[in-house]
Amino acid sequence: MVESRLTGQVRVVGVGLLGTSIGLGLRARGVDVILADASPTNLSIAIDYGAGRGSLADDAPRIIVVCVPPDVTAQIIAAELLAYPDALVTDVASVKLAPLEELRASGADISRYIGSHPLAGRERGGPLSGRADLFLGRPWVVADHGGVSYQRAALLDDLILDLGATLVEMSPEQHDSSVALVSHVPQVISSVMARRLSDAPEAAVNLAGQGLRDVTRIAASDPELWVQILGANSGPVVDVLREFRADLDRFIEALEHPSQGSSRRRINEELAGGNTGVARIPGKHGLDRRYSSLVVMVDDKPGELARLFVEIGEANVNLEDLRLEHSPGAQIGLAEISVLPEVVQRLTDELSQRGWRIAG
């Protein structure tokens, strides 16, 4: 067991995906985790899952992590501040300014509150989706409002580092405008695109490839939760969506007259701008690095994918990223493997010699 930076008790309020994952990660380091949830069923599942224990009358947590829906986040934070006057309280809501302003308006003791937000998650929620490694290598924003002492805030830093996340400091305003661009607007665009498939002909849907799957993956998220998130951060989201609408209008105008030289140039500029934007997205280990890829055909039967991974390792090549896609109507899968450019040819040759079929 790896030694924890934290000492004392940690109380986690709300045992959905994030709360349960926090509990599992801290328990793996031997931290005493106290769990609480409005749902006795969810609480029982999380406890049985090993994310922590139930609360006792003499509990005295040093830090409390509130993991509840955005529309009740400030209310629960205020209640925890009152119930545990010696504890630092944080939350993991994906909007930071609205809870802080609500707490200020209510007169809560924000000298013991500091908002935070782990940029980690899955399409499915609930305690059974929790994972101890959910936060490994992921950014975790600490939204300092200037009213918390360094000594108190250090508890949150220790918790974040114990969970393997990367600490990022931002103001609440910076955080909300940033997540509007990189999280909230992508959710809207993904959902709107996926909604176009609702009445699409079956023949069209059957042609869906990895591109459509990539664009619509997060459209499977919980609508009720996203109504709250978008409502709480509506200003920054609307600003980005208006700019996106202007981009679409320019693209549509160019496509209406595709044979014109100026239209072709504008289309090319928009597409090239997308290349530039993608290149800025941090890759593995936070580096702006582009990888080379090859597509391997994998028979759809037990053990084949595991064998592929083993043989990539035997070739002494590190797998940087992986995408899987099934070929429609065929008992075969397509594994798109991303590796460093300098090893792609060697890996292609090695896998071909071992009998793997390289599709591209």
Automatic annotation (TrEMBL):
<dbReference type="InterPro" id="IPR008927">
    <property type="entry name" value="6-PGluconate_DH-like_C_sf"/>
</dbReference>
<dbReference type="InterPro" id="IPR045865">
    <property type="entry name" value="ACT-like_dom_sf"/>
</dbReference>
<keyword id="KW-0028">Amino-acid biosynthesis</keyword>
<dbReference type="GO" id="GO:0008977">
    <property type="term" value="F:prephenate dehydrogenase (NAD+) activity"/>
</dbReference>
<dbReference type="Pfam" id="PF02153">
    <property type="entry name" value="PDH_N"/>
</dbReference>
<dbReference type="InterPro" id="IPR050812">
    <property type="entry name" value="Preph/Arog_dehydrog"/>
</dbReference>
<dbReference type="GO" id="GO:0006571">
    <property type="term" value="P:tyrosine biosynthetic process"/>
</dbReference>
<feature type="domain" description="ACT">
    <location>
        <begin position="293"/>
        <end position="360"/>
    </location>
</feature>
<dbReference type="InterPro" id="IPR036291">
    <property type="entry name" value="NAD(P)-bd_dom_sf"/>
</dbReference>
<protein>
    <recommendedName>
        <fullName>Prephenate dehydrogenase</fullName>
        <ecNumber>1.3.1.12</ecNumber>
    </recommendedName>
</protein>
<dbReference type="InterPro" id="IPR046825">
    <property type="entry name" value="PDH_C"/>
</dbReference>
<dbReference type="InterPro" id="IPR002912">
    <property type="entry name" value="ACT_dom"/>
</dbReference>
<dbReference type="InterPro" id="IPR003099">
    <property type="entry name" value="Prephen_DH"/>
</dbReference>
<dbReference type="Pfam" id="PF20463">
    <property type="entry name" value="PDH_C"/>
</dbReference>
<comment type="similarity">
    <text>Belongs to the prephenate/arogenate dehydrogenase family.</text>
</comment>
<dbReference type="GO" id="GO:0070403">
    <property type="term" value="F:NAD+ binding"/>
</dbReference>
<comment type="pathway">
    <text>Amino-acid biosynthesis; L-tyrosine biosynthesis; (4-hydroxyphenyl)pyruvate from prephenate (NAD(+) route): step 1/1.</text>
</comment>
<keyword id="KW-0560">Oxidoreductase</keyword>
<keyword id="KW-0827">Tyrosine biosynthesis</keyword>
<dbReference type="GO" id="GO:0004665">
    <property type="term" value="F:prephenate dehydrogenase (NADP+) activity"/>
</dbReference>
<dbReference type="InterPro" id="IPR046826">
    <property type="entry name" value="PDH_N"/>
</dbReference>
<feature type="domain" description="Prephenate/arogenate dehydrogenase">
    <location>
        <begin position="8"/>
        <end position="289"/>
    </location>
</feature>
<keyword id="KW-0057">Aromatic amino acid biosynthesis</keyword>
<keyword id="KW-0520">NAD</keyword>
